[in-house]
Amino acid sequence: MSPQEPLPTPSLSDPRIQSGVKSAYGQQVSRIKLAQRLISLPDNESRYQQLRNELIQSYAISETELLQLAGARANRAKELMVAQQPNLAERINIGSSKVVSADQDGIPLGVSLGSKK
Questions:
Q1: What are the CA-CA distances from residue 28 to residues 13, 51, 53, 110 (Å)?
Q2: How many whole angstroms separate alpha carbon 37 and alpha carbon 51?
Q3: Could you please report the per-residue DSSP string of 60-89?
Q4: What is the mean pLDDT of the chain?
Q5: What is the mean pLDDT of residues 63-71?
Q6: Structural domain boundaries of the chain?
Q7: Which residue of 48, 80, 81, 99 is surrounded by the most CB atoms within 10 Å?
Q8: Is residue 41 over pLDDT 90?
């Protein structure tokens, strides 16, 4: 896998992945809610997709953690650009993070261009 590729989505038809999703759901969300879901949802890939989605939604991420993640993404983007064009190192500045929402393509990384006068 190259650094440019997104992380792969796990195969929810794989029994090992299903077991991992159930285990994580029971620990993070609730074992009682897991039991309810296992009884009420048919045993198919959709069940594990729903469990995975609920598990992801259960994670609480603080504003500070989001800002740290945004800073890390910006620094990584700069590293990749400088790796391709080392002369850009002095010319790329990282600004403050802005609040945005993810869409179907993920979270946008904004770039502003300017010039020295």
A1: 21, 11, 12, 33
A2: 8
A3: ---HHHHHHHHHHHHHHHHHHHHHH-GGGT
A4: 88
A5: 90
A6: 15-58, 61-95
A7: 48
A8: yes
Supply 79's token pair.
């590293």
The pLDDT of residue 96:
85
Answer yes or no: is pLDDT of 7 > 80.
no
Please, where are the H alpha helices in the chain?
15-28, 31-40, 45-58, 63-84
Q: How far apart are the first and last CA of the chain?
A: 42
55 and 25 Cβ atoms separated by less than 8 Å? yes
Amino acid at 76: R
Q: Token match 């993810």: residue? A: 102
Structure tokens at 96: 């403050």
Distance CA 87, CA 104 (A): 34
DSSP single-letter state for residue 41:
S
Query: What is the pTM (predicted TM-score) of this model?
Result: 0.59
In the structure encoding, which two tokens stand for residue 37, read together? 């879901």
Q: Which residues contact 33 (CB under 8 A, 6 or more apart)?
A: 25
